[in-house]
Amino acid sequence: MLKIGCHLSSVKGYVHMGKEIISLGGNTFQFFTRNPRGGAAKPLDTEDIEKYNSFAQNNGIDVILAHAPYTLNCASAEEEKREFALRAFSEDISRLELVRGAMYNFHPGSHVGQGADKGIELIADILNRVITPKQKTVILLETMAGKGTEIGRNFYELRRIIDKVELSDKIGVCMDTCHVYDGEYDIVNDLDNVLREFDSIIGLERLKAVHINDSKNPFGSHKDRHEKIGEGFIGIEAFERIINNRYLRELPFYLETPNDAEGYRKEIEILKNIYK
Ligand code: FE
Ligand code: FE
Ligand code: ZN
């Protein structure tokens, strides 16, 4: 069965998100661990989490994806911002340890002019300080579109971060279709070759999730503007090949398209219908 879901608001808690995704026809979902642009997380509601864990088990929700806030920049030049990233990161992970099937996705960061080498070093430093040998939550580096000074603009940069992490068995990758297409990986005309490249540089065993988004901009534009499925430059035929690809078809897919609930319901249905 296709593992498919979309980004949901987490304000009403885990049980609410679980019920919402089932009502939208999905079986997995993504959410922000805290306000995507703000700071503090809301108080931990362990009762909600316990209820969610049994709801998920009873309703076939095996994995979910927590997304770190955009403000979290492990590669910042400012010590204060890196301290915030470190704190938010470790708090998020310790909370996610309680949640059934949760993985944690983050944008590697922006080096803000310090250079990719320095940025990669700073990111790995934080990962080495937050990852503990006992944690079960896998941390996913997201493939980025390469706008501004974003790190993760290509597979090599992700590989270099992973190489510097001591407990790297806790690290995986989330591939965002809009971002990689923006980043000059031709998943429309040559998906096989892109995956071969991913495998030789990072290793396909590290690929744990896919953000499934169409793109408002043409190939290689490094802009990062998501479009509804089938309405952008990637197109529905490419998505049909992507969700059915033998290396991808078992992974969870997350829509981050510009949609309301009804729009997501439709996209989930479309994708389920073209899944073989
Ligand atoms: Fe993201
Ligand atoms: Fe994404
Ligand atoms: Zn994006």
Please outline the helices and strands.
Layout: E1 3-6, H1 14-23, E2 30-32, H2 46-59, E3 64-67, H3 79-96, E4 102-106, E5 109-110, H4 116-130, E6 139-142, E7 150-151, H5 155-164, E8 171-176, H6 177-182, H7 191-201, E9 207-212, E10 214-215, E11 226-227, H8 236-244, E12 252-255, H9 261-273
Bound molecules: fe (iii) ion (2 copies) and zinc ion (ZN).
Could you characterize the architecture of this molecule?
With 276 residues, this protein is an alpha/beta fold. The chain has a single domain, classed as Divalent-metal-dependent TIM barrel enzymes (TIM Barrel, Alpha-Beta Barrel). It has 9 helices and 12 strands. The protein has helices at residues 14-23, 46-59, 79-96, 116-130, 155-164, 177-182, 191-201, 236-244, 261-273, and strands at 3-6, 30-32, 64-67, 102-106, 109-110, 139-142, 150-151, 171-176, 207-212, 214-215, 226-227, 252-255. The strands form 3 sheets. Strands 1-12-9-8-6-4-3-2 form an 8-stranded parallel sheet. A two-stranded antiparallel sheet has the order 5-7. Helix 1 runs parallel beside helix 2 (46-59) and helix 4 (116-130) crosses helix 5 (155-164). The longest helix has 18 residues, at 79-96. It is globular and about 45 Å long. The termini are close together. 45% of the residues are buried. The mean pLDDT is 97. One fe (iii) ion (FE) binds at residues 142, 176, 211, 256.
